Amino acid sequence: MTNSNTRTGTGDVDPAVRAELARLRDSIDNIDAAVVHMLAERFKCTQQVGRLKAVHQLPPADPAREASQIARLRRLAENAKLDPAFAEKLLGFIIAEVIRHHERIADDTANDTANGSVSAPPTTEDDTSRPGE
Description:
Blueprint: H1 15-55, H2 63-79, H3 84-114
Helix pairs in contact: 1-3, 2-3
């Protein structure tokens, strides 16, 4: 559908529309960058959780924690007017990646322990109450 306010007779996009698209796309690019940086920070934390769980021989996954997180994220999504099903899919993808990392860390820790080369990381609090991280 062509709107006479957005196109000139030659089929070129109106400069005002082009400028608005550029402004909105710049905002989207900034948000995407923030999302990537937030995910990187999240994964730094979950790597620490994975190391702690591995050293203490806790399982990589905690289905109860994961279910609680999914329910919490669905509520947050609803309050933010975001599709809760989308939010659940996104968190499910992230959780699967975290578990994969935790399994790798557990395997590496077990191999290091078998070789006698692992030492427990310093901890400032007991993180076993949140094993689904």
